[in-house]
Recover the amino acids of this structure.
């Protein structure tokens, strides 16, 4: 064993003994330091290669990144143990391995929130229901997932501001993935005067949608929903194959403009005030 534990309690004497030992064994210390530096450098290369291989196999960037990080950590840990063995600290290696269980328990209690988010991140990356680039709504935040790591999910909101949400909150709460379905339904509520011919109104709306860009593979739905005191209420439903907020706004804008234009051209009165819209 290269390093022997001294029985002296004098810190300066211990320091001198260590200095003498390093001077006597400097080639071994230099070898250990070079080896550790090489391990750290190689760990980056290992992570990069692992990311490419895992991404090629699974096609999921988030999973590849997380798993490659784990591989890199294991690689560095093995390198540290080997470095200690080179220095002759075999007893230290044994003590570290023996104390790993206790250390793991202490760290588990101290880093409970961090570990729970990390575990949630692992679970999330193995699922196929969301990935980087998806347009989602989670914990009242709406936007595009730009990063998914062991701790946080980063969502770029529609106003351009990034928000980092702990993975345990993402996993533990409802998440709406608009990208998964690839389409969204737009609902528009309109009120018309009681004096209007409802069959004519239905025909006019159908004609208006002939000039509107929507998913015509799905039926355009028109429902008269209520005979209110001031108006006849109707609900218009249609689908678009885009799902981002700007796409919804553009679809609503186009539909309302075309409906208003054709109503004005045919003398249809919309009671004031009444015009609302929503999406579901």
């Amino acid at each position: 064993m290269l390093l022997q534990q001294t029985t002296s309690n004098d810190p300066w004497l211990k320091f001198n003994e260590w200095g003498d030992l390093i001077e006597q064994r400097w080639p071994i210390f230099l070898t250990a330091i070079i080896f550790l530096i090489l391990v750290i450098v190689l760990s980056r290369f290992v992570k990069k290669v692992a990311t490419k291989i895992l991404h090629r196999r699974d096609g999921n960037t988030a999973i590849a990144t997380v798993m490659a990080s784990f591989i890199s950590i294991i690689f560095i840990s093995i390198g540290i143990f080997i470095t200690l063995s080179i220095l002759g600290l075999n007893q230290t290696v044994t003590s570290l391995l023996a104390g790993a269980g206790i250390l793991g328990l202490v760290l588990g209690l101290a880093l409970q929130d961090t570990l729970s988010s990390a575990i949630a991140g692992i679970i999330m990356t193995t699922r196929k229901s969301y990935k980087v680039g998806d347009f989602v709504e989670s914990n009242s935040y709406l936007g595009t997932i730009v990063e998914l790591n062991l701790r946080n999910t980063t969502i770029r909101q529609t106003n351009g501001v990034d928000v980092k949400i702990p993975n345990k909150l993402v996993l533990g709460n409802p998440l709406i993935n608009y990208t998964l379905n690839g389409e969204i339904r737009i609902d528009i509520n309109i009120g018309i005067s009681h004096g209007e011919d409802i069959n004519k109104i239905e025909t006019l709306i159908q004609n208006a949608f002939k000039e509107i860009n929507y998913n015509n593979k799905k039926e355009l739905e028109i429902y008269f929903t209520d005979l209110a005191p001031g108006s006849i209420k109707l609900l218009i439903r249609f689908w678009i194959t885009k799902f981002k907020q700007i796409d919804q706004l553009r679809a609503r804008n186009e539909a309302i403009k075309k409906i208003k234009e054709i109503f004005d051209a045919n003398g249809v009165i919309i009671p004031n005030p009444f015009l609302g819209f929503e999406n579901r």
Summary: The radius of gyration is 32 Å. Residues 1-8, 274-280 have pLDDT under 50 and may be disordered. The first strand starts at residue 135 and ends at 138.
